[in-house]
Specification:
Blueprint lengths: L1 E2 L1 H14 L4 H16 L10 H10 L9 E5 L3 E5 L5 H19 L1 E9 L5 H9 L4 E6 L21 E5 L7 E5 L6 H10 L8 E2 L9 H10 L4 E2 L10 H17 L6 H4 L11 E8 L9 H14 L15 H13 L1 E2 L2 H14 L7
């Protein structure tokens, strides 16, 4: 079933307001989540609502809050999200980082006491849309990834994103988990009844799991196995994904006062909220070289990459950000596809919270 992005946006907003989120914060959050679905990132858009509902009911996600600045100087800021969803707080941080970069060449903003914020790339692109190189990191709450050589889980998927503006081309936009895949993609495959590619998820014996429903159960409801770091195995250089995951944890959590779930959860430090952290950095290229030269050089690089002969003529060489733009163009024309089980989950959720159901 396909739905216009505007319908999905309004459906999300209806539910968030029913959960007592202020209309302004709900509008920002719904815009980011609907844009995520429009860009083909199905794991981080409307499908997240059923997970958020569990957090709301458990009292670890507070929606009747607004982010506030608790510390600020010329080039840095720290924002307290109040235990609410990370989307409004991260958007606020991206704007502040960009404002500071406009004045001083660099601007950094951190967010503490937050929650899931959707795709990191959205916030990096917010900064590149204003002419800056944008960098965004976020720790992940769900402990799902096994470090190289470890039998147990330690990190979340810990995403990072970087966006950079060009002149005649769309911006470079890298948005990636530091695990082989994002945990929510396992849910998407389970919703769609599709088998998992080999090596995405491992069982407690280190063997690949292809059954998406079993993998979802193991990741979200048990401690059996987990996701692999980027690379998959030690032989395939998973230590690089492991190192990137730790880097994101340091920037997106340790630096801003966020949690480290393996240590904080056992001692009760996360009983009333997940305390997710985000870190966003904006860089103004004009402070490093004459205005316009960075964008022109990036255009030349993008054009050169696009011009490389592909292995398969049906699959031309792409630059990070191209797949999301292609998905957006297609979904603007055809609508955003939602699986029947997901639509029924949203219908039931609306019945529980009293929100108007629009996905009929």
């Amino acid at each position: 079933m396909h739905f216009a992005a505007g319908v999905i946006r309004q459906q999300i907003a209806n539910i968030l307001v029913a959960w007592k989120m202020t209309p302004g914060m709900a509008e920002i959050t719904a815009e980011i989540m609907a844009d995520t679905d429009l860009s083909g990132i199905d794991s981080h858009g409307i499908s997240m609502l059923t997970w958020y509902e569990g957090k709301v009911q458990a009292g670890t996600l507070r929606l009747a809050v607004e982010p506030r600045v608790v510390r600020e100087n010329a080039v840095t800021a720290l924002i307290d999200a109040g235990g609410g969803l990370g989307h409004p707080a991260a958007a606020m941080a991206a704007r502040m980082a960009a404002d500071k970069a406009a004045a001083y060449g660099l601007g950094g903003a951190g967010v503490t006491n937050s929650h899931h914020f959707g795709p990191a790339g959205y916030y990096a692109k917010m900064m590149s849309d204003r002419g800056f190189i944008g960098f965004a990191t976020c720790q992940s709450r769900t402990v799902a990834v096994q470090p190289t050589r470890s039998r147990t889980r330690v990190f979340g998927t810990n995403p990072l994103a970087c966006a950079a503006p060009a002149r005649r081309n769309p911006p470079f936009l890298l948005d990636m988990a530091t695990s082989t895949i994002a945990a929510q993609k396992v849910k998407v495959y389970a919703y769609q009844g599709k088998p998992l590619p080999g090596g995405w998820v491992l069982d407690e014996n280190g063997q690949p799991i292809s059954d998406a429903a079993l993998a979802r159960e193991n990741i979200f409801n048990t401690q059996k196995g987990g996701l692999s770091p980027l690379g998959g195995t030690a032989e395939m250089a998973s230590h690089k994904g492991y190192g990137l995951s730790m880097m994101v944890q340091i920037l997106g959590s340790t630096l801003v006062g966020g949690s480290f779930a393996p240590l904080d959860e056992p001692r009760g430090a996360m009983d009333h909220g997940d305390n997710i952290g985000h870190f966003l950095l904006a860089i103004d290229p004009k402070w490093f070289r004459p205005a316009g030269l960075f964008e022109d050089a990036l255009d030349d690089m993008i054009d050169y990459l696009h011009a490389q002969p592909p292995v398969n003529p049906e699959e031309p060489v792409f630059v990070p950000g191209d797949p999301e733009r292609q998905a957006r163009e297609k979904r603007l024309q055809e609508g955003v596809p939602l699986s029947a089980p997901l639509v029924e989950n949203i219908r039931a959720l609306c019945a529980r919270c009293g929100a108007q159901f629009l996905l009929s």
